[in-house]
Design goal:
alpha/beta; 21 helices; 28 strands; elongated
Amino acid sequence: MNRSTGGCRSTLRPRPVSPAWRRAVWSGTSALAALALSLGVPAVAAPSGPANSVPTVPVAATPVPTTPSDAEVEAEPVLLELTALGPIDAAAAPIVTFEGMLTNRSDRPLTVLNAYLRLSRVPVLDRADLARIADPGFRPGARQGVFVLAADALAPGASVPFRLDVAAGDLGLSEPGVYAAGVEVLATDADGSRGVVGRAMTALPWLPSGTSTPAVGVAVAWPVTAPVDRAADGTYLTDDLGTAMAPGGRLAALLGTAPDAPITWLVDPAVVEAAADLAGGYDVRRDLADPASARPGTRDEAAEAWLEEVRRLAGTGHVTLAPYADVDAVALGRAGLGADAVTALDAATEAAETLGLDGADDPRDLLRPPGGLVDLPTAERLSAAGVTTLLLDAVGVRIGAAAAAARLDVGSAPLTAVLADDLLRGVFASTPAAAGTSSGLEPPTASRVEAELGARQLLLAHTLLAAMFAPTEPGPGGQTVLVVSGDETSTISPAAVLATLDQDVPWMQPVPLDAAIASPMVDGELVYPDAAVAGELPAAYLTQVISLQQKVGLRAALRSPAAASGAGEPADLDPAGLEPTTAARLRSASAAWRAEPARAAAMVAEAAATIDAELGRIQIIDGGGITLSSQTGRFPITVVNDLAEPVTVQLTLSSRTPARLRVPPTTAIEVPAGARTTVDVSAEANANGQYVVDAQLATATGARFGPASTLTIRATDYDTVAWIVMGVAGGLLVIGSARRLTGRVRAARRPADVPAAAQAVEP
């Protein structure tokens, strides 16, 4: 894009120079300035003109960059926040305006607060040096003679806006480049002393009229994700998600009043699912470990508005789904759970159909792994699952020449890697007040605006330098493209920044992400730095996740066929319609927990405790001692189910002396909801005595749970002894009866003439 003045056109094509040479020039010029000052060049005096005057005072020497200590920066009594700098193309306007807010954060009043222009006339020509301009501890340049009276007095804690108009010609800038510019405030303290009370700097891109540069394309892809702490009972452990979606929250700030600029939003369906759940009314626990402490949440309307904005963006083709819960794919593979990275892809598309995200693109079309980095085994696994394009940080791919995209030779089919510019990623860093939280409560309004202004100015600065040193022949793609990608903790909205960019900025132009893919592509090789390993979900945490998953699977295996088929009371589905155990498993492995490990561990521990408590409501009732009155007998065992759904369990029995007492190893039992079931179990004893049997509940697949019960069985073999006794008694009875019968027979055969006395004598 060219811009001409008065019908004449001049073309700027700076000769590429090394970054080291540029830094040397900047440092050398500063050293010469210091020498000039030491030789007696007069310093610039602050004029005492009327309020709102714009005097012009010549500057005798190039200002010297200064770096005050952190203590000096913190000691400044006035917080100076720049909220506006315009126009965007400052060199094309007659007046450059700085606006901001002054806040007296000291405990003493200040008077006569003058806001001065602070400026360095040494251009920055190396993109790597741009970050220093906005560093609070770096003060390049010097105070100029242009000022405005910002306030006659400022009480402790009070704030006042200011506006400083500077004639473009008074800036004294002639060469293209990026300059450090800002505002420095002088005030009188209560003790009568006067000095600098606050400063703020930003980047001022400068492209003189009549200078032509190629327009650099800026493609933006932004992750929209957050941890979801939804418990198994449907309550939320905190209200962080609702807060994040409310005005001023991090998720609300990301989308903002999103224009239809070519931004690709990489949206986690688990977060959209949570928004739909919150919009329908939700409960938040006051006590993490107590489900009964849950009370209604208050962010349902905010969640609904946020959900509608995501659906609108999806309908316009600006949304690509992230894997469900934005799982930490590399960490999962390292823990032996790599299959879940593939499961998350399928879960994302399933959830999108239920959540009204029909216009969103499949995550296989473009996938940004957490942190923008991926190792080779994970890339191979994703490629085998159908992923075609990865969005990676440039440090994650080794290439031989600068490019916005690279080919990766992984698996059976090569992957395309879109490379996010490392320097631009820092432009959209989190605001200090919101960093490290999932909600990102809104800092003061001026701070939010100042952060967005700083991001805008740095974006313009990076693109100007990229345009100034772009190749003469950009290649088949026809345009140099810089790709911007945020991270999971970014709080500055790219939409808010891009919304302020005039499409007539001569050196940059927002373009869709496809422009990066269409740009010249080079061969690349994956790089996974050691620092990336340290940033993954910890192995100890994933061990907890694996244990929880085992418990979740065990609990699901207890569901009876009647409950599974719909008869009885089935378990609630997740709001997105996913099978609840799968959704919960993936949510626990979300990379969003990287920034909040303590909260993640608490969530997993709570879920495990909930399942343990449920399993504890299924138990064996020990009826006391059991007696077998025969070699083979039966005895009752009762199983109680206090859950609200029927379960099917296996009763596993184990004799401690199997050679003497044998019991069946397993018995299947179906127990209705809130009921108890008694079964008769057979046993066989080889000898009399007392025996111990361990009884344990298990799932249909044999996974044991709950405490074991100890049963005492006494075998008396009573029936065998009784038959022996009865047999002996019967024999004695027969013998006695026979003898009596024999005596009667003999008595009947004696002669009649034998005397009675003789008959009475036994022969």
